[in-house]
What does this fold into?
Amino acid sequence: MIRVQNLVRTFGDFTAVNNISFDVAEGEIFAFLGPNGAGKSTTIKMLTTLLRPTSGTITLNGLDPNVKQREARQSFGIVFQDPSLDQEQTAYENMDLHGVLYHVPRKVRVQRIESLLKIFELWDRKDAMVKTFSGGMKRRLEIARGFLHTPKILFLDEPTLGLDPQSRNQLWTHVKSINETEKTTVFLTTHYMDEADRVAHRIAIMDHGAIVATGTSAELKEQTNTDSLEAAFLALTGSTLRDEGADAKQGLRQMAQMFGRR
Amino acid sequence: MGAIYILWLRELKRYTRSRVQVVVSLGQPILYLLAFGAGFSPVFRQAGLGSYLQFIAPGIIGMTVLFSSIFNGIAMLWDRQFGFLKETLVAPVSRLEIMIGRTLGGATVAMIQGTLVLIISMLFGFRPHSWAVLPVAFFFVFLVAMVFSALGTAIGSVIKDMQGFQLVMNFMVMPIYFLSGALYPLANLGKVMTVITRLDPLTYGVDGLRGSLISVWHFNPALDATVLAGVACCFLALGAYLFSRIEV
It folds into this structure.
Protein backbone atom coordinates (compact mmCIF):
# COMPACT_ATOMS: atom_id res chain seq x y z
CA MET A 1 0.00 0.00 0.00
CA ILE A 2 2.88 2.34 0.81
CA ARG A 3 6.24 1.78 -0.80
CA VAL A 4 9.16 4.08 -0.14
CA GLN A 5 12.49 3.62 -1.86
CA ASN A 6 15.72 5.49 -1.16
CA LEU A 7 13.88 8.57 0.02
CA VAL A 8 16.08 11.60 0.72
CA ARG A 9 15.21 15.11 1.80
CA THR A 10 17.78 17.79 2.48
CA PHE A 11 17.37 21.35 3.74
CA GLY A 12 20.46 23.25 2.70
CA ASP A 13 23.33 21.00 3.78
CA PHE A 14 21.26 19.42 6.54
CA THR A 15 19.90 15.98 5.66
CA ALA A 16 16.56 15.46 7.42
CA VAL A 17 15.75 12.14 5.79
CA ASN A 18 18.66 10.06 4.63
CA ASN A 19 17.97 7.32 2.12
CA ILE A 20 15.14 5.43 3.78
CA SER A 21 13.17 2.53 2.29
CA PHE A 22 10.21 0.61 3.66
CA ASP A 23 6.96 -1.08 2.69
CA VAL A 24 3.60 -1.05 4.40
CA ALA A 25 1.12 -3.75 3.46
CA GLU A 26 -2.59 -3.20 2.92
CA GLY A 27 -4.60 -3.21 6.14
CA GLU A 28 -1.50 -2.96 8.27
CA ILE A 29 -1.01 -0.63 11.23
CA PHE A 30 2.52 0.66 10.90
CA ALA A 31 4.16 2.71 13.63
CA PHE A 32 6.99 5.09 12.93
CA LEU A 33 8.99 5.83 16.05
CA GLY A 34 11.97 8.02 16.72
CA PRO A 35 13.30 10.78 18.96
CA ASN A 36 12.47 14.43 18.23
CA GLY A 37 14.12 15.63 15.06
CA ALA A 38 14.61 12.10 13.71
CA GLY A 39 12.82 13.01 10.49
CA LYS A 40 9.40 11.46 11.13
CA SER A 41 7.37 14.54 10.34
CA THR A 42 9.45 15.33 7.29
CA THR A 43 8.76 11.81 6.04
CA ILE A 44 5.02 12.18 6.64
CA LYS A 45 5.03 15.52 4.86
CA MET A 46 6.64 13.90 1.83
CA LEU A 47 4.21 10.99 1.91
CA THR A 48 1.26 13.38 2.03
CA THR A 49 2.31 15.67 -0.87
CA LEU A 50 3.15 18.59 1.40
CA LEU A 51 6.86 18.44 0.70
CA ARG A 52 8.76 17.30 -2.36
CA PRO A 53 11.48 14.70 -1.83
CA THR A 54 15.02 15.63 -2.83
CA SER A 55 15.34 12.17 -4.35
CA GLY A 56 13.84 8.70 -4.08
CA THR A 57 10.40 7.36 -4.93
CA ILE A 58 7.12 7.07 -3.07
CA THR A 59 4.17 4.95 -4.14
CA LEU A 60 0.85 5.29 -2.35
CA ASN A 61 -1.91 2.93 -3.39
CA GLY A 62 -0.02 2.49 -6.66
CA LEU A 63 0.24 6.24 -7.26
CA ASP A 64 3.17 8.60 -7.17
CA PRO A 65 1.90 11.47 -4.97
CA ASN A 66 4.12 13.97 -6.74
CA VAL A 67 2.72 13.15 -10.17
CA LYS A 68 -0.90 12.18 -9.49
CA GLN A 69 -1.28 14.60 -6.63
CA ARG A 70 -5.07 14.80 -6.58
CA GLU A 71 -5.71 11.08 -6.89
CA ALA A 72 -3.16 10.42 -4.18
CA ARG A 73 -4.74 12.98 -1.88
CA GLN A 74 -8.15 11.45 -2.45
CA SER A 75 -6.79 8.08 -1.37
CA PHE A 76 -5.42 9.07 2.02
CA GLY A 77 -6.58 10.87 5.13
CA ILE A 78 -4.33 12.71 7.53
CA VAL A 79 -4.49 13.83 11.12
CA PHE A 80 -1.80 16.42 11.67
CA GLN A 81 0.40 16.79 14.70
CA ASP A 82 -1.32 20.10 15.51
CA PRO A 83 -5.07 20.62 15.26
CA SER A 84 -6.65 21.54 11.93
CA LEU A 85 -10.35 21.94 12.75
CA ASP A 86 -12.46 24.99 12.09
CA GLN A 87 -13.15 26.18 15.63
CA GLU A 88 -16.00 28.42 14.58
CA GLN A 89 -18.08 25.65 13.05
CA THR A 90 -19.92 22.73 14.62
CA ALA A 91 -18.62 19.19 14.62
CA TYR A 92 -21.13 18.23 11.96
CA GLU A 93 -20.22 21.18 9.75
CA ASN A 94 -16.54 20.31 10.01
CA MET A 95 -17.32 16.79 8.85
CA ASP A 96 -19.59 18.01 6.08
CA LEU A 97 -17.02 20.49 4.79
CA HIS A 98 -14.42 17.74 4.67
CA GLY A 99 -16.84 15.48 2.81
CA VAL A 100 -17.46 18.14 0.18
CA LEU A 101 -13.74 18.84 -0.25
CA TYR A 102 -13.13 15.12 -0.75
CA HIS A 103 -16.00 14.69 -3.21
CA VAL A 104 -18.06 12.33 -1.05
CA PRO A 105 -21.57 12.19 -2.60
CA ARG A 106 -24.24 13.81 -0.46
CA LYS A 107 -26.13 10.66 0.49
CA VAL A 108 -23.03 8.72 1.45
CA ARG A 109 -21.77 11.76 3.31
CA VAL A 110 -24.83 12.02 5.51
CA GLN A 111 -24.74 8.32 6.39
CA ARG A 112 -21.05 8.17 6.98
CA ILE A 113 -20.90 11.30 9.11
CA GLU A 114 -23.59 9.84 11.33
CA SER A 115 -21.97 6.45 11.71
CA LEU A 116 -18.47 7.87 12.31
CA LEU A 117 -19.64 10.45 14.82
CA LYS A 118 -21.46 7.65 16.63
CA ILE A 119 -18.41 5.38 16.62
CA PHE A 120 -16.25 8.17 18.01
CA GLU A 121 -18.95 9.07 20.55
CA LEU A 122 -19.50 12.60 19.33
CA TRP A 123 -22.98 12.25 17.84
CA ASP A 124 -24.80 13.92 20.73
CA ARG A 125 -22.41 16.89 20.47
CA LYS A 126 -22.63 17.16 16.70
CA ASP A 127 -24.20 20.63 16.74
CA ALA A 128 -21.82 22.11 19.30
CA MET A 129 -19.10 24.49 18.19
CA VAL A 130 -15.71 22.83 18.02
CA LYS A 131 -14.20 25.59 20.17
CA THR A 132 -16.22 24.25 23.12
CA PHE A 133 -14.68 20.76 22.77
CA SER A 134 -12.02 19.28 25.03
CA GLY A 135 -8.66 18.25 23.61
CA GLY A 136 -9.70 14.61 23.46
CA MET A 137 -12.95 15.37 21.68
CA LYS A 138 -11.18 17.50 19.09
CA ARG A 139 -8.73 14.71 18.43
CA ARG A 140 -11.53 12.18 18.03
CA LEU A 141 -13.34 14.49 15.65
CA GLU A 142 -10.21 14.90 13.57
CA ILE A 143 -9.72 11.18 13.33
CA ALA A 144 -13.38 10.58 12.49
CA ARG A 145 -12.99 13.24 9.80
CA GLY A 146 -9.89 11.52 8.46
CA PHE A 147 -11.92 8.33 7.92
CA LEU A 148 -14.86 10.12 6.30
CA HIS A 149 -13.88 9.71 2.66
CA THR A 150 -13.02 6.02 3.20
CA PRO A 151 -9.31 6.55 2.59
CA LYS A 152 -7.09 3.60 1.77
CA ILE A 153 -4.45 4.98 4.10
CA LEU A 154 -4.77 7.10 7.23
CA PHE A 155 -1.76 9.03 8.46
CA LEU A 156 -1.74 9.87 12.15
CA ASP A 157 1.08 12.18 13.23
CA GLU A 158 1.34 11.97 17.02
CA PRO A 159 -2.45 11.87 17.42
CA THR A 160 -2.41 11.27 21.18
CA LEU A 161 -0.06 14.10 22.13
CA GLY A 162 -1.37 15.79 25.27
CA LEU A 163 -4.30 13.44 25.83
CA ASP A 164 -5.13 11.69 29.09
CA PRO A 165 -4.79 7.88 29.28
CA GLN A 166 -8.58 7.39 28.99
CA SER A 167 -8.79 9.37 25.76
CA ARG A 168 -5.72 7.68 24.34
CA ASN A 169 -7.02 4.28 25.15
CA GLN A 170 -10.44 4.95 23.67
CA LEU A 171 -8.97 6.58 20.58
CA TRP A 172 -6.83 3.57 19.72
CA THR A 173 -9.72 1.20 20.31
CA HIS A 174 -11.72 3.08 17.68
CA VAL A 175 -8.84 3.29 15.24
CA LYS A 176 -8.18 -0.41 15.60
CA SER A 177 -11.79 -1.35 15.08
CA ILE A 178 -12.08 0.74 11.91
CA ASN A 179 -8.79 -0.68 10.70
CA GLU A 180 -10.34 -4.12 11.07
CA THR A 181 -13.76 -3.40 9.59
CA GLU A 182 -12.67 -1.17 6.69
CA LYS A 183 -9.18 -2.56 6.10
CA THR A 184 -7.75 0.95 6.22
CA THR A 185 -3.98 1.00 6.32
CA VAL A 186 -2.81 3.13 9.24
CA PHE A 187 0.55 4.87 9.36
CA LEU A 188 1.23 6.48 12.71
CA THR A 189 3.93 8.22 14.67
CA THR A 190 3.96 8.47 18.45
CA HIS A 191 6.25 8.97 21.41
CA TYR A 192 4.26 6.57 23.58
CA MET A 193 5.93 3.17 23.29
CA ASP A 194 3.08 1.33 24.98
CA GLU A 195 0.70 2.52 22.25
CA ALA A 196 2.95 1.37 19.46
CA ASP A 197 3.45 -1.91 21.27
CA ARG A 198 -0.27 -2.49 21.65
CA VAL A 199 -1.63 -1.10 18.37
CA ALA A 200 0.96 -1.51 15.66
CA HIS A 201 1.47 -4.66 13.63
CA ARG A 202 4.90 -3.51 12.59
CA ILE A 203 7.25 -0.81 13.81
CA ALA A 204 10.06 1.14 12.22
CA ILE A 205 12.50 3.09 14.37
CA MET A 206 14.08 6.15 12.88
CA ASP A 207 17.04 8.12 14.13
CA HIS A 208 19.15 10.89 12.55
CA GLY A 209 17.17 10.62 9.33
CA ALA A 210 17.71 6.91 8.83
CA ILE A 211 15.73 3.81 9.74
CA VAL A 212 17.72 1.86 12.34
CA ALA A 213 15.37 -1.10 12.76
CA THR A 214 12.10 -2.52 11.42
CA GLY A 215 9.96 -5.39 12.64
CA THR A 216 7.22 -6.45 15.00
CA SER A 217 7.46 -5.39 18.60
CA ALA A 218 8.58 -8.90 19.54
CA GLU A 219 11.27 -8.92 16.88
CA LEU A 220 12.65 -5.59 18.03
CA LYS A 221 12.80 -6.78 21.63
CA GLU A 222 14.51 -9.96 20.58
CA GLN A 223 16.97 -8.12 18.37
CA THR A 224 18.04 -5.83 21.20
CA ASN A 225 17.72 -8.41 23.93
CA THR A 226 15.34 -6.28 25.96
CA ASP A 227 11.99 -7.00 27.56
CA SER A 228 10.04 -3.84 26.65
CA LEU A 229 9.67 -1.78 23.53
CA GLU A 230 10.84 1.29 25.39
CA ALA A 231 14.07 -0.46 26.37
CA ALA A 232 14.50 -1.65 22.80
CA PHE A 233 13.92 1.91 21.56
CA LEU A 234 16.52 3.32 23.92
CA ALA A 235 18.96 0.58 23.04
CA LEU A 236 18.58 1.46 19.36
CA THR A 237 18.59 5.23 19.57
CA GLY A 238 20.74 5.87 22.65
CA SER A 239 19.65 7.91 25.65
CA THR A 240 21.08 11.34 24.83
CA LEU A 241 18.62 14.21 24.48
CA ARG A 242 18.14 15.52 20.97
CA ASP A 243 16.65 18.96 21.14
CA GLU A 244 19.34 20.71 23.13
CA GLY A 245 22.03 20.42 20.46
CA ALA A 246 24.34 17.47 20.99
CA ASP A 247 27.36 19.73 20.62
CA ALA A 248 27.64 23.47 20.57
CA LYS A 249 29.33 23.72 17.20
CA GLN A 250 26.47 21.90 15.51
CA GLY A 251 23.99 24.26 17.15
CA LEU A 252 25.87 27.33 15.99
CA ARG A 253 26.00 25.99 12.47
CA GLN A 254 22.28 25.47 12.44
CA MET A 255 21.69 28.99 13.71
CA ALA A 256 23.94 30.41 11.04
CA GLN A 257 22.03 28.46 8.43
CA MET A 258 18.73 29.77 9.69
CA PHE A 259 19.85 33.36 9.53
CA GLY A 260 21.58 32.84 6.24
CA ARG A 261 18.41 31.63 4.62
CA ARG A 262 16.25 34.51 5.76
CA MET B 1 -17.68 23.74 -7.67
CA GLY B 2 -18.61 22.06 -4.40
CA ALA B 3 -15.39 23.24 -2.80
CA ILE B 4 -15.95 26.84 -3.86
CA TYR B 5 -19.49 26.78 -2.52
CA ILE B 6 -18.67 25.21 0.84
CA LEU B 7 -15.79 27.62 1.47
CA TRP B 8 -17.94 30.58 0.44
CA LEU B 9 -20.63 29.36 2.82
CA ARG B 10 -18.10 29.04 5.60
CA GLU B 11 -17.08 32.70 5.32
CA LEU B 12 -20.73 33.69 5.44
CA LYS B 13 -21.42 31.56 8.49
CA ARG B 14 -18.45 32.98 10.32
CA TYR B 15 -19.78 36.45 9.66
CA THR B 16 -23.39 35.86 10.70
CA ARG B 17 -22.29 33.99 13.83
CA SER B 18 -19.99 36.62 15.26
CA ARG B 19 -22.66 39.17 16.16
CA VAL B 20 -20.28 41.12 18.34
CA GLN B 21 -17.99 41.56 15.39
CA VAL B 22 -20.86 42.77 13.22
CA VAL B 23 -21.74 45.43 15.77
CA VAL B 24 -18.10 46.44 16.27
CA SER B 25 -17.46 46.73 12.56
CA LEU B 26 -20.49 48.97 12.13
CA GLY B 27 -19.37 51.20 14.99
CA GLN B 28 -16.59 52.82 13.01
CA PRO B 29 -18.73 53.90 10.02
CA ILE B 30 -21.32 55.27 12.41
CA LEU B 31 -18.64 57.28 14.17
CA TYR B 32 -17.46 58.69 10.83
CA LEU B 33 -20.99 59.54 9.75
CA LEU B 34 -21.68 61.23 13.03
CA ALA B 35 -18.37 63.02 13.62
CA PHE B 36 -17.60 64.02 10.05
CA GLY B 37 -21.12 64.13 8.65
CA ALA B 38 -22.36 66.38 11.39
CA GLY B 39 -19.06 68.01 12.37
CA PHE B 40 -17.88 69.22 8.98
CA SER B 41 -21.34 70.01 7.66
CA PRO B 42 -21.33 73.76 8.47
CA VAL B 43 -17.91 74.36 6.86
CA PHE B 44 -18.87 72.35 3.82
CA ARG B 45 -22.12 74.20 3.45
CA GLN B 46 -20.39 77.58 3.76
CA ALA B 47 -18.10 76.58 0.93
CA GLY B 48 -21.23 76.16 -1.15
CA LEU B 49 -20.87 72.41 -1.63
CA GLY B 50 -24.18 71.34 -0.12
CA SER B 51 -24.66 68.69 2.54
CA TYR B 52 -21.49 67.01 3.75
CA LEU B 53 -23.44 63.99 4.92
CA GLN B 54 -24.74 63.48 1.40
CA PHE B 55 -21.17 63.82 0.20
CA ILE B 56 -19.38 61.42 2.55
CA ALA B 57 -22.02 58.69 2.94
CA PRO B 58 -20.88 56.99 -0.32
CA GLY B 59 -17.29 57.39 0.85
CA ILE B 60 -18.09 55.73 4.17
CA ILE B 61 -19.79 52.86 2.34
CA GLY B 62 -16.63 52.49 0.25
CA MET B 63 -14.53 52.51 3.43
CA THR B 64 -16.67 49.82 5.03
CA VAL B 65 -16.36 47.57 2.00
CA LEU B 66 -12.60 48.20 1.88
CA PHE B 67 -12.01 47.36 5.56
CA SER B 68 -14.32 44.39 5.57
CA SER B 69 -12.78 42.88 2.42
CA ILE B 70 -9.21 43.23 3.62
CA PHE B 71 -10.06 41.91 7.08
CA ASN B 72 -11.59 38.82 5.59
CA GLY B 73 -8.44 38.12 3.65
CA ILE B 74 -6.28 38.68 6.70
CA ALA B 75 -8.52 36.32 8.70
CA MET B 76 -6.49 33.66 6.91
CA LEU B 77 -3.92 34.40 9.60
CA TRP B 78 -6.24 32.75 12.12
CA ASP B 79 -6.88 29.81 9.84
CA ARG B 80 -3.16 29.40 9.56
CA GLN B 81 -2.72 29.62 13.32
CA PHE B 82 -5.58 27.29 14.19
CA GLY B 83 -4.50 24.91 11.46
CA PHE B 84 -7.68 24.88 9.39
CA LEU B 85 -5.82 26.21 6.36
CA LYS B 86 -3.83 22.97 6.23
CA GLU B 87 -6.99 20.89 6.12
CA THR B 88 -8.05 22.68 2.94
CA LEU B 89 -4.57 22.64 1.41
CA VAL B 90 -4.16 18.83 1.52
CA ALA B 91 -7.65 18.20 0.15
CA PRO B 92 -7.95 16.85 -3.40
CA VAL B 93 -9.09 20.19 -4.82
CA SER B 94 -7.04 22.79 -6.62
CA ARG B 95 -5.65 25.75 -4.76
CA LEU B 96 -7.41 28.02 -7.23
CA GLU B 97 -10.82 26.71 -6.15
CA ILE B 98 -9.95 27.25 -2.50
CA MET B 99 -8.73 30.76 -3.21
CA ILE B 100 -11.85 31.62 -5.24
CA GLY B 101 -14.20 30.25 -2.57
CA ARG B 102 -12.52 32.27 0.16
CA THR B 103 -12.35 35.44 -1.92
CA LEU B 104 -15.99 35.28 -3.02
CA GLY B 105 -16.99 34.64 0.59
CA GLY B 106 -15.05 37.68 1.73
CA ALA B 107 -16.55 39.80 -1.04
CA THR B 108 -20.09 38.71 -0.13
CA VAL B 109 -19.56 39.60 3.51
CA ALA B 110 -18.16 42.98 2.50
CA MET B 111 -21.20 43.65 0.31
CA ILE B 112 -23.53 42.86 3.20
CA GLN B 113 -21.56 45.24 5.42
CA GLY B 114 -21.73 47.94 2.74
CA THR B 115 -25.49 47.49 2.46
CA LEU B 116 -25.92 47.77 6.22
CA VAL B 117 -23.96 51.02 6.23
CA LEU B 118 -26.09 52.37 3.39
CA ILE B 119 -29.19 51.67 5.48
CA ILE B 120 -27.60 53.26 8.55
CA SER B 121 -26.61 56.37 6.64
CA MET B 122 -30.22 56.69 5.51
CA LEU B 123 -31.23 56.68 9.16
CA PHE B 124 -28.84 59.60 9.58
CA GLY B 125 -30.65 61.45 6.81
CA PHE B 126 -28.79 60.39 3.68
CA ARG B 127 -30.98 60.17 0.57
CA PRO B 128 -29.92 58.84 -2.87
CA HIS B 129 -31.09 61.14 -5.66
CA SER B 130 -33.32 58.36 -7.00
CA TRP B 131 -34.16 54.82 -5.87
CA ALA B 132 -33.66 53.50 -9.37
CA VAL B 133 -29.89 53.98 -9.06
CA LEU B 134 -29.50 51.41 -6.29
CA PRO B 135 -28.63 48.53 -8.67
CA VAL B 136 -25.83 50.63 -10.17
CA ALA B 137 -24.56 51.45 -6.68
CA PHE B 138 -24.62 47.74 -5.79
CA PHE B 139 -22.64 46.98 -8.90
CA PHE B 140 -19.93 49.35 -7.69
CA VAL B 141 -20.06 47.88 -4.20
CA PHE B 142 -19.51 44.47 -5.81
CA LEU B 143 -16.53 45.71 -7.82
CA VAL B 144 -14.91 47.35 -4.79
CA ALA B 145 -15.52 44.20 -2.73
CA MET B 146 -13.87 42.03 -5.40
CA VAL B 147 -10.85 44.31 -5.76
CA PHE B 148 -10.07 44.36 -2.06
CA SER B 149 -11.07 40.80 -1.20
CA ALA B 150 -8.61 39.63 -3.83
CA LEU B 151 -6.00 41.98 -2.37
CA GLY B 152 -6.87 40.67 1.10
CA THR B 153 -6.31 37.08 -0.02
CA ALA B 154 -2.99 38.07 -1.54
CA ILE B 155 -1.90 39.78 1.68
CA GLY B 156 -3.24 36.96 3.84
CA SER B 157 -1.13 34.48 1.87
CA VAL B 158 2.02 36.40 2.68
CA ILE B 159 1.78 37.68 6.25
CA LYS B 160 2.37 35.23 9.06
CA ASP B 161 1.88 37.16 12.29
CA MET B 162 0.08 40.04 13.97
CA GLN B 163 2.95 42.45 13.33
CA GLY B 164 2.41 41.99 9.62
CA PHE B 165 -1.24 42.75 10.16
CA GLN B 166 -0.43 46.09 11.83
CA LEU B 167 1.93 46.93 9.00
CA VAL B 168 -0.78 46.32 6.43
CA MET B 169 -3.34 48.37 8.33
CA ASN B 170 -1.09 51.39 8.81
CA PHE B 171 0.77 51.47 5.55
CA MET B 172 -1.79 50.11 3.15
CA VAL B 173 -5.41 50.15 4.25
CA MET B 174 -5.49 53.54 5.93
CA PRO B 175 -3.66 55.32 3.06
CA ILE B 176 -5.97 53.66 0.53
CA TYR B 177 -8.88 55.07 2.45
CA PHE B 178 -7.59 58.57 3.19
CA LEU B 179 -6.19 59.12 -0.31
CA SER B 180 -9.32 58.02 -2.14
CA GLY B 181 -11.54 61.08 -2.13
CA ALA B 182 -13.89 59.35 0.29
CA LEU B 183 -13.71 62.35 2.60
CA TYR B 184 -13.04 65.31 0.27
CA PRO B 185 -13.76 66.36 -3.33
CA LEU B 186 -11.06 65.54 -5.86
CA ALA B 187 -11.49 68.79 -7.77
CA ASN B 188 -8.77 71.45 -7.38
CA LEU B 189 -6.31 69.23 -5.52
CA GLY B 190 -2.59 69.94 -5.90
CA LYS B 191 -0.65 68.09 -8.60
CA VAL B 192 0.93 65.54 -6.28
CA MET B 193 -2.37 64.71 -4.62
CA THR B 194 -4.09 64.42 -7.97
CA VAL B 195 -1.56 61.86 -9.11
CA ILE B 196 -1.72 59.92 -5.84
CA THR B 197 -5.50 59.84 -5.69
CA ARG B 198 -5.66 58.61 -9.25
CA LEU B 199 -3.36 55.71 -8.41
CA ASP B 200 -5.69 54.60 -5.61
CA PRO B 201 -8.24 52.03 -6.82
CA LEU B 202 -10.69 53.03 -4.09
CA THR B 203 -10.92 56.48 -5.71
CA TYR B 204 -12.79 54.95 -8.63
CA GLY B 205 -14.99 52.90 -6.33
CA VAL B 206 -15.96 55.93 -4.27
CA ASP B 207 -16.54 57.96 -7.43
CA GLY B 208 -18.77 55.22 -8.83
CA LEU B 209 -20.74 55.07 -5.60
CA ARG B 210 -21.02 58.81 -5.20
CA GLY B 211 -21.90 59.24 -8.86
CA SER B 212 -24.61 56.65 -8.82
CA LEU B 213 -26.05 57.57 -5.43
CA ILE B 214 -26.03 61.38 -5.49
CA SER B 215 -25.22 62.00 -9.15
CA VAL B 216 -21.92 63.79 -8.55
CA TRP B 217 -19.28 62.35 -10.87
CA HIS B 218 -15.62 63.26 -10.92
CA PHE B 219 -14.83 60.72 -13.65
CA ASN B 220 -17.56 58.76 -15.41
CA PRO B 221 -19.24 55.39 -14.79
CA ALA B 222 -17.52 53.62 -17.68
CA LEU B 223 -14.04 54.68 -16.59
CA ASP B 224 -14.71 53.78 -12.95
CA ALA B 225 -16.08 50.35 -13.79
CA THR B 226 -13.29 49.58 -16.25
CA VAL B 227 -10.52 50.56 -13.86
CA LEU B 228 -12.07 48.60 -11.00
CA ALA B 229 -12.63 45.48 -13.12
CA GLY B 230 -9.08 45.67 -14.44
CA VAL B 231 -7.57 46.07 -10.98
CA ALA B 232 -9.78 43.25 -9.66
CA CYS B 233 -8.42 40.91 -12.35
CA CYS B 234 -4.82 41.87 -11.51
CA PHE B 235 -5.35 41.35 -7.78
CA LEU B 236 -7.14 38.04 -8.38
CA ALA B 237 -4.22 36.79 -10.43
CA LEU B 238 -1.78 38.01 -7.77
CA GLY B 239 -3.86 36.40 -5.02
CA ALA B 240 -4.07 33.11 -6.88
CA TYR B 241 -0.31 33.13 -7.42
CA LEU B 242 0.58 33.95 -3.82
CA PHE B 243 -2.01 31.53 -2.46
CA SER B 244 -0.60 28.73 -4.59
CA ARG B 245 2.80 29.30 -3.01
CA ILE B 246 1.71 28.91 0.62
CA GLU B 247 3.70 26.23 2.36
CA VAL B 248 2.42 24.35 5.38
About this structure: Chain A has ten helices and nine strands.
